[in-house]
User: Which sequence fits this backbone?
């Protein structure tokens, strides 16, 4: 069994992805300072993450777990416009940089390292420090920018991923960063695969469609003249990226809204946003967002039932199927809807990560 450490664990997306991928692995310890996320993580997995600051972890703190694998999803703000693109000068980048400096001090290096972050990380100083350190320690590195839409999931969420495996023998080649390729197609090599993408209706809670608590407030719509909201219908096959601000008054850039009435209307009068009020626009529920992010969930009535035959080759890319492996993602009863949206907006797509685990990282 592979023993993992999960840094910046959030609600456990990287942990869930191990189960979705069917990897024989366990998470010895997770680390995060977000109290609400840690509460959800413990409620789901039954173990509480450490809230010790990651940039204060010592070699002794890490070596006590004898981990074969590091899973990392560090804060994205240092690499976004909203975070002012301060990169390594941002205090929120310090924990990752600290882990990078700790690596060569370990008596036994982890065999596997996986990192997820936003687009722009690939051109950051933090990424440069990371890949240079991994290269010097004889890791085989692969990098990519991929979205769930490329895997047959109707949600656009472009993210950077790094997959690193320790070489059995030292490599003669040097200077990885000068010859690095950031892959933007899935799979990386070989013939392109056209995955079937289910409609959005396959992810919906139909009984909640008209729930008052999920309707977009009228005041948020009518104040936004000439803004082209991302409106999608149950019959559609794509949603935009959900951010941590989803479900709040930040409706212009935080994710798609679902049209539940007058479904024959497809042409919208953006100059007169009051015309949108008859469309029954609502937010996707946290449960629906979690499904679109491919978190393991209990089976639901409306999900797609198409299944595929298991592949003889375990590293063959799979057609998306709703994952139901346990444990399921579970929120404690006292977590508010807006908190759920915030946590999910900060998380990742478990299916994408699971496929990268299966096909690229755990292939020894």
Assistant:
């Amino acid at each position: 069994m592979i023993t993992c450490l999960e840094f910046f664990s959030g609600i456990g997306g990287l942990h869930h992805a191990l189960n979705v991928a069917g990897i024989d692995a366990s998470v010895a310890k997770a680390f995060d300072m977000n109290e609400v996320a840690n509460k959800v993580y413990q409620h789901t997995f039954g173990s509480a993450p450490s809230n010790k600051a990651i940039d204060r972890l010592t070699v002794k703190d890490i070596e006590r777990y004898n981990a074969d694998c590091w899973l990392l999803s560090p804060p994205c703000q240092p690499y976004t416009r909203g975070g002012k693109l301060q990169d390594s000068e941002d205090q929120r980048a310090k924990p990752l940089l600290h882990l990078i400096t700790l690596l060569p001090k370990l008596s036994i290096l982890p065999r596997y390292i996986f990192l997820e972050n936003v687009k722009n990380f690939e051109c950051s100083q933090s990424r440069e420090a990371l890949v240079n350190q991994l290269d010097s320690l004889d890791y085989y590195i692969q990098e990519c920018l991929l979205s769930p839409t490329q895997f047959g999931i109707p949600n656009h969420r472009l993210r950077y991923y790094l997959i690193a495996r320790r070489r059995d023998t030292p490599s003669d080649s040097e200077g990885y960063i000068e010859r690095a390729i950031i892959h933007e197609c899935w799979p990386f090599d070989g013939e392109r695969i056209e995955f079937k993408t289910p409609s959005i209706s396959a992810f919906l809670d139909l009984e909640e469609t008209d729930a008052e608590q999920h309707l977009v407030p009228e005041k948020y719509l009518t104040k936004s003249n000439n803004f082209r909201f991302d409106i999608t219908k149950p019959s559609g096959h794509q949603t935009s990226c959900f951010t941590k601000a989803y479900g709040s008054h930040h409706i212009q850039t935080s994710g798609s809204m679902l049209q539940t009435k007058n479904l024959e209307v497809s042409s919208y009068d953006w100059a007169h946003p009051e015309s949108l009020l008859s469309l029954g626009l609502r937010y996707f529920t946290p449960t629906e967002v979690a499904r679109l992010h491919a978190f393991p969930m209990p089976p639901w009535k409306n999900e797609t039932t198409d299944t595929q035959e298991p592949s003889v080759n375990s590293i063959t890319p799979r057609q998306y199927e709703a994952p139901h492996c346990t444990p399921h993602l579970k929120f404690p009863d006292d977590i508010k809807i807006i908190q759920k949206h915030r946590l999910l907006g900060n998380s990742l797509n478990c299916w994408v990560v699971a496929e990268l685990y299966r096909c690229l990282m755990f292939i020894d």
